[in-house]
Amino acid sequence: MVVSSRGRRFGSSDRLVRVRDPIVLQPTFPRFLSLGEPFEIPVSVRNDTGKDASSRSRSRSRPDRAAAGKERPIEVPNGAERLVYFPARSGENGGDAHVE
Q1: In sequence order, what are the residues at sequence separation of 6 or more whose Cβ sits closer than 8 angstroms to the Cβ of residue 94?
Q2: What is the separation of C-alpha 16 from the centre of its chain, rounded to a whole number of angstroms?
Q3: pTM of this prediction?
Q4: How many whole angstroms separate alpha carbon 70 and alpha carbon 72?
Q5: pLDDT top residue among 33 and 19
Q6: Cα–Cα separations (whole angstroms), residue 81 to 14, 22, 25, 70, 84
Q7: CA–CA–CA angle 37, 42, 78 (5° rounding)
Q8: Could you read off the pLDDT of 30-85 as tens digits, one per residue?
Q9: Other Cβ atoms closer than 10 A to 61
Q10: How many angstroms separate the CA atoms of 92 and 100, rounded?
Q11: How far is the CA of 46 from the CAs of 70, 79, 84, 89, in angstroms?
Q12: Does residue 26 contact residue 42 with C-beta atoms inside 8 Å?
């Protein structure tokens, strides 16, 4: 988004910008969690490699934090986007979570 002003004149504009890497992973984490709360981490996988892709994804975390760890198979056709969900649970103590 761009915003501009000069005196009493102003304007703005925005535009969709697509990232053009061959494979793009975009996780979405919850903003708030209670202690010990189970939740899912959705990860969007975009394939622009020029061919269909098939892989397995796994998440890791510190043992005392949002531990996920299950492997998830995913197939993404070329030019498509798919969601894969990883189960997790917030830690019993407050603090930062570290997920790979």
Answers
A1: 35
A2: 18
A3: 0.69
A4: 6
A5: 33
A6: 23, 12, 10, 21, 10
A7: 165
A8: 888 888 888 888 999 999 999 999 988 777 766 555 555 667 889 999 999 999 98
A9: 19
A10: 20
A11: 21, 7, 11, 26
A12: no
